[in-house]
Write a structure and sequence with these properties.
The structure holds two protein chains of two kinds. In chain A, a hairpin with a 2-residue loop joins β1 and β2. In chain A, the strands form two sheets. Chain A has a six-stranded mixed beta sheet with strand order 6-7-8-3-9-10, with helices on both faces. In chain A, strands 2-1-4-5 form a four-stranded antiparallel beta sheet, covered by helices on one side. Chain A is built from twelve helices and ten strands. The longest helix of chain A has 14 residues. The chains are: A alpha/beta, B mainly alpha. The interface between A and B is medium-sized, with 25 and 23 residues.
């Protein structure tokens, strides 16, 4: 187990990541981010940078706040009454504070997409599932919609499987296909950041492998933040990893470094399976 | 604990399971008994009505106006009146009930004001129907001067079934899973878009079911209609909703006076001439048939929508 974890993901060895700090621009930065459910503080002053067109994994034991953190990025918490953000989440290049009081969460969600834990396609046709985000954005031309839907389905590596049945229900697909459909749905709107909330926890190993491959391919196109409680998955798909514990960010580093040579004792204990 | 695979211990397990399953089967029998006695009661009632009303159950009966002579009396004005009242009630209840339910379920902040409204909506479903009749008499007939019209009857019955429709619609809306709503929100949809494009279409089966169950309650209501002055003897039909000239539809029938199936039945039952009892039974069989038909449509709709959407 430990030796497998220690092996760096091949992509890290391609050289692109060897000196990440120089080439990579920052897409988003959380500054002293705290979050409250009523009086319960779930996130405690996080400071972290998300690199543009890289995959950042959030790991940590259940209840550590990683999903809570992820859902701050598209203001999903605004749907729950009694929640409160503190601090800032800056989005670059336009210095836009996602969680500022005056910022409309809908504007944020127009720019940041999300894929959920359980595949949740709409009970509509495959085509309409992918087209929905475009329609919300006011795209009326059928030709353009068709073009964008095909592009998104290709990017989500599901085009070949569904091209002959775009009119059948999204619910008629298998679980893994449904999740890739959901990825296509999110990609169709060309988000600047794509959030994944444990996207494979409801899938079998083969479907999981396909999703992981897909995330690896997306790396060049979009900034990805992925929550996972599968450490091997974090090691396989991510460029950077953040380890969280009890609402705090314990350690953030290049994935290969964090898994082979963590600088904090708590991180080492967690990745070697001593708790969690 | 010990090596329990001996033949003796296995037979002991079986005996134990069988003993406990007796209770299980006992409950199944009790359940069937209760269910069948309820169904039997309804069937006996229906068959009795049909048998008693058999001599009058024909097309003449449906096509004739009421008359002083029992053998010539029919329910033409009654079933036309009932149909038009149901149409009016549905047209008023559907938008108001669904909008109220959407507001309470999707928009209203969860505070004590909403809590009181919710409790009251539920309580209103239990208010005796004659109270609605009195309210409508004061409000619609005298205050708004709507008179003893189909519109008044529709408004009154709408008030009566609104709580039922609101509660049923809220349940249907609540059945749309949160992840589906979140998926739409995450794509940048507004609350109205999430409601109109997703929540409402996906819960349509449940909403229509609630609507029809409400209407089948309204179709048999007698007390509020008597209170607001339904006539029991009408030998003419309301004006036709369709006209020969543009715009081809007319709403003058809303202001016409009317009678309804339960009113007609009530009138016949209260007559001394036993011949009229036959008419009452025949009208009762038809009214019950109309109610069963509406419930049948509700079941079919629910089945259709469930088949298309299974989460």
């Amino acid at each position: 187990m430990q030796t497998r974890l220690a092996t760096p993901r091949p992509a890290i060895g391609t050289g692109r990541e060897s000196a990440p700090a120089e080439h990579v621009t920052v897409k988003s930065r959380a500054e002293d981010l705290s979050f409250y459910y009523g009086s319960v503080q779930a996130l405690k002053g996080l400071n972290i940078e998300m690199r543009e067109k890289r995959v950042t994994a959030l790991i940590g034991p259940s209840g550590c706040g990683k999903t809570t953190f992820l859902r701050c990025f598209n203001r999903m918490h605004d749907l729950t009454p009694g929640t409160r953000y503190e601090g800032r989440i800056m989005l670059y290049p336009d210095d836009f504070d996602l969680i500022a009081k005056h910022v409309d969460p809908i504007e944020v969600r127009m720019r940041i997409g999300m894929v959920f834990q359980k595949p949740n396609p709409f009970p509509k046709t495959i085509f309409e599932n992918v087209a929905y985000g475009l329609r919300v954005r006011g795209l009326r031309s059928n030709a353009r919609v068709e073009e964008e839907v095909e592009k998104a389905l290709r990017r989500a590596a599901i085009w070949d499987e569904v091209k002959d049945r775009l009119d059948s229900s999204g619910l008629s697909l298998s679980g893994g296909q449904q999740q890739r459909l959901c990825i296509a749905r999110a990609l169709a709107t060309n988000p600047e950041i794509l959030l994944f909330d444990e996207p494979t926890s409801a899938l079998d190993p083969i479907a999981t492998a396909r999703i992981e491959e897909l995330i690896a391919e997306l790396r060049d196109q979009v900034t990805v933040i992925i929550v996972t409680h599968n450490m091997q998955q974090a090691a396989r798909v991510s460029d950077y990893t953040a380890f969280m514990y009890l609402g705090e960010l314990i350690e953030f580093d290049v994935t290969s470094k964090l898994f082979t040579n963590p600088s904090k004792k708590a991180t080492e204990d967690y990745i070697t399976g001593r708790y969690g | 604990m010990q090596a329990t695979t001996s033949a003796e211990s296995i037979s002991r397990i079986r005996a134990d399971v069988n003993r406990r399953k007796v209770l299980d089967q006992l409950f199944v029998m009790l359940g069937l008994l209760v269910m069948f006695s309820a169904l039997l009661m309804l069937a006996v009632l229906f068959i009795d009505l049909v048998r008693e009303g058999a001599p009058r159950l024909n097309l003449d009966f449906l096509g004739s106006f009421p008359s002083r002579k029992p053998e010539r009396a029919g329910i033409l004005s009654a079933w036309v009146g009932t149909s038009l009242i149901m149409l009016t009630t549905a047209a008023i209840t559907m938008p108001i009930g669904v909008a109220a339910a959407i507001y309470l379920e999707e928009y209203a902040p969860k505070n004590w004001v909403t809590a009181i409204i919710e409790i009251n909506v539920t309580n209103l479903a239990g208010v005796p129907s004659i109270i609605y009749g009195l309210l409508a008499l004061g409000l619609f007939v005298y205050q708004f001067n709507l008179g003893q019209s189909i519109l008044t009857a529709g408004l009154t019955l709408s008030l009566l079934i609104l709580p039922i429709v609101i509660v049923a619609t809220r349940e249907a809306l609540r059945a749309v899973p949160r992840p589906i709503r979140e998926a739409a929100y995450a794509l940048g949809a507004t609350r109205w878009e999430v409601t109109a494009h997703h929540v409402l279409p996906y819960s349509m089966g449940g909403i229509l079911t609630g609507m029809i169950i409400g209407l089948s309650r309204a179709i048999g209501e007698t007390a509020p209609l008597i209170t607001i002055g339904a006539l029991s003897f009408i030998a003419f039909l309301p004006q036709s909703p369709f006209t020969a000239e543009f715009p081809f539809v007319s709403f003058t029938w809303l202001k016409d006076s009317y009678t309804a199936m339960p009113i007609q039945m009530f009138n016949w039952v209260s007559r001394p001439d036993p011949e009229f009892q036959v008419n009452a039974a025949a009208a009762g069989a038809i009214l019950l048939g109309m109610t069963l038909l509406m419930n049948g449509i509700a079941i079919w709709l629910r089945y259709r929508f469930r088949k298309r959407i299974n989460w």
